[in-house]
Amino acid sequence: MKIIISPFSRKRPNGECNAKDYPDWQSLVNLLRSDGHHLIQVGQSGEQQLPCQEIKFDLSISELREVLLNSDTFISVDNFFPHFAAYYNKRGIVIFGKSDPRIYGHELHINVLKSRNCLRLNQFDHWHSEPHDAEVFVKPFAIMNVIRDFDASGDFQ
Amino acid sequence: MIYMTLAEIAYLKDIARGKRILEIGTFDGGSAALMLGAGALKVTTIDLFNPDALQNEDSRAEYQRKFQQYEISEEKTRANLIEYANCNLIVGESKEIVPCLKDGEYDMVLIDGDHSYEGVKADCANTLLKLKKNGLILFHDNNQKFPGVMKALQEVTLPKIAQVDSLTVFQKRLSVTAEISTKDRYFSTLPMTISGIITQNITPDKLLIFDDSENVIDLRTVPIYQHLFRLLDMKGIRWEVVFGEKKGQTLNHQKALRMADTDCIWRLDDDLILESNVLETLLDQMNDGVGAVGCCIWHPDRPVIDLPPHINGKINLLSIEYGAMEWFRFQGIRKVEHLYSSFLYRRQAALEAGGYPMDLSFVGHHEETIFSHKIMRAGYELIVTPDAKMYHLRNPEGGIRSYQDQSLWQQDHEKFIRLLEEWGYKPQEDKIIVLDNGLGDHWVFKQVLQKIKAISNGTKIIIACCYPEVFADDDVTIISIADAYNAFGNLDRYNLYKWCAEHDCHESIEKAFEAMYLQ
Question: Are strands B381-392 and B290-298 parallel, antiparallel or unpaired?
Fold first, then answer.
């Protein structure tokens, strides 16, 4: 499948990574590539580049829309991309950690959450004050199971 | 010689400074010299110096007696005043001379001439034309020795601003009742508003306070109010505290309209700070045909910007989000179709207009808009002047509109819209949306926007946002967050996450946006 990877949320003011950022992208991307998927990383210049086949940074909205509509699906953290994709009715996988998919997720997408026990208490506080915790996310193999089921079901089409 | 009491002399010295004064009855020039010595700019003083020429017998006898007793003559008086270059002594009958003087020239008139009823009446009528607006007219010898003076002064309809022994002082202006409708602001902003009234250049004649507080206090027992009430007494401002029926400000305003016995009513919020020229400026603009006058009402919680072109005071363009003309900076007098919050209005115009809209809820949302517009519909002009400023603190604690049931606001708004339609207006309200949040939120909102558009029925949609490119293909007006801040002040009420937290909303942000903007 042609899969868009939207891996990061905006960094915190102190330069540390956002609490919503998935810690195992490197492994996940390698696993996805080993399954034969074509990966396109989107984001902004300055962000870490993952070993995807294509890197497309700093796209305009129309360019991003073009990439989205020409891909099969996407995998993203809880950043703007799932909302953008939902607007264009493109289904994807969203990896949640401390943010609540019932609030920030879309029913259209597959929202992957390790446990509701991991959610932060006040969902409406600024995220820049929230520390990152790698333990609140599912492991890459769990994502791989989701994408394999997804691929097999053809639901993304 | 000055034939006045010490208190009268002190008062006259206090008020004469910097004024152009017309005096009827020079006598030996004592009071003219006193006023010039106290810093009067100019004194024009008129005397006949011929008691025999007076027509009224009683006056003539009194005048003859005094002239003989004090050996008054024109020559002696001129000698008494010779050192004052800015004194103009005119000899002749005041009834003949005064009409020849320039209209609106004098800041003050002192009438101490012919003490007969007819003489005082004539001097009063003639000199009033020569007084500037807000000028003072003083009458001496208002006591039982001079029944003619007493009788004539009982018929003066101008606001009486002072009585110092036998010196009675009126002001050439419309009389004013200031009215405050208050609730639960005893120890926050109400005392500030009252002190702002006390320190006006021109003070109202009466202050009515309608108290709708939950736990009513007798303010006469509270030290700060004891001070304020003493000052009101000192300034000659009659005052009255009325325990309200706790049915909201509209009823209180209507009661004020019924209770006031003055030409004008100055309605004031209970969280205002006033510059000292407000009432003076409002009165200056209350010309014939004007029904109500407002001034700048600035909010310290938002920057004051130049009047945007779309704020034109038209009632059908009313957008409460965009604010009223009074909120902005502008030059020159503006005619408007409605007034905001606190303004001066002519009582007769309000009565002709049918008074306040009594079918609104306790909140009284839009009551001043409807009320002021009714005055306009009764044939009077509504004016906003930028030459005076009040500062509306919008105190979050208390306030006459501090009712918890938010649906009351909506009910009143719907009534207002129906009324506009009855009046033949097509209400045009802008839909204001503020997205001071992340790019993702913008995309979620973009979905909600389609639903808003579907029910907007032609309403102009204005979106203040951080990522305008998201809405580039939508037919909406885009402004920046900075513009929104300038126009609407504090944007907290548009903060999605704050809204969610306050409403304990744990549904999706799409649903939250819908709740914020679709309901």
Answer: parallel
CA–CA gap between residue B490 and residue A54 (Å, rounded): 44
Q: Return the structure tokens found at B477.
A: 């007006």
A3 pairs with which residues across the strands? Answer: A39, A73
> Which residue from B125, B173, B200 is spatially nearest to B287, judged by alpha carbons?
B173
Tell me if chain A has a CB within 8 Å of the CB of B363. no
CB of B510 less than 8 A from some CB of A: yes
What pTM did the predictor assign?
Answer: 0.65
What string of DSSP letters covers B135-198? Answer: EEEEES--STT-HHHHHHHHT--SPEEEEETTEEEEESS--EEEEEEESS-TTTTHHHHHHHHH
Q: Strands (DSSP E) along chain A, which ranges?
A: 2-6, 38-43, 54-57, 73-77, 93-96, 110-113
| Cα distance between residue A127 and residue A80, in whole Å | 14
Phi, psi of B13 (to 5 degrees): -65, -40
Q: What is the mean pLDDT of residues B414-441?
A: 86
- Looking at residue A146, its amino acid is V
Whole-number average pLDDT of chain B: 90
Could you tell me which chain A residue has the CA closest to the CA of B444?
A: A83
- What's the first-to-final CA gap in chain B, in angstroms? 79
A124 at B interface, C-beta within 8 A:
yes
- B17: CB partners within 8 A, 6+ apart: B38, B39, B40
Residue type, B103: D
Q: Residue B497's CB: how many other CB atoms inside 10 A?
A: 18
Of all residues in chain B, the one with the smallest CA distance to A64 is: B470
Percent of chain B at pLDDT > 90 equals 64
Question: How much is the average pLDDT of A69-98?
Answer: 96
Calpha distance A43→A45 (Å, rounded): 7
Count CB atoms within 10 A of the CB of residue B241: 19
The H-or-E segment that residue B297 falls in is: strand B290-298
Contact B506 A103 (CB under 8 A): yes
Q: Residue B440 and residue A81: Cβ atoms within 8 Å?
A: yes
Which chain A residues are Cβ-neighbours of B439 within 8 angstroms? 80, 83-84
> Is residue A108 a contact partner of residue A119, using CB atoms and an 8 Å limit?
no
Contacts of residue B212, defined as CB under 8 A and 6 or more positions apart, other chains included, come to B181, B182, B183, B244, B245, B246, B247, B248, B249, B252, B400
Quote the CA–CA distance of A20 and A131 in Å, as a whole number: 9
Q: What would the pLDDT profile of B370-422 be if each residue is shown by its tens digit?
A: 999 999 999 999 999 999 999 998 777 777 665 656 678 778 888 988 998 89
Residue B320's pLDDT is 47
Closest CA to B446 of A68, A155, A41, A61: A61
Q: Rounded to an integer, what distance in angstroms lies between the CA atom of residue B507 and that of residue B503?
A: 11
A83 in contact with B at a CB cutoff of 8 Å? yes
The Cα of A39 is separated from the nearest Cα of chain B by a number of Å equal to 22
DSSP secondary-structure letter at B32?
A: H
Q: What is the sign, positive or negative, of the torsion defined by CA atoms of A113, A116, A118, A119?
A: positive
| B508·A105 Cβ contact <8 A | yes
CA distance B469 to chain A (A): 8
Of A46, A33, A43, nearest in space to A9 by CA: A43
Q: Which residues, including other chains, have CB under 8 Å from residue B502's CB and lie 6 or more apart?
A: none
Residue B410, exposed/middle/buried by CB under 10 A (0-12, 13-18, 19+)? Answer: middle
Rounded Cα–Cα distance for residues B156 and B128 (Å):
11
Which ipTM value was assigned to this complex? 0.89
Please report, as a single letter, which amino acid is at residue A92: G
B440/A106 touch (CB, cutoff 8 Å), yes or no: no
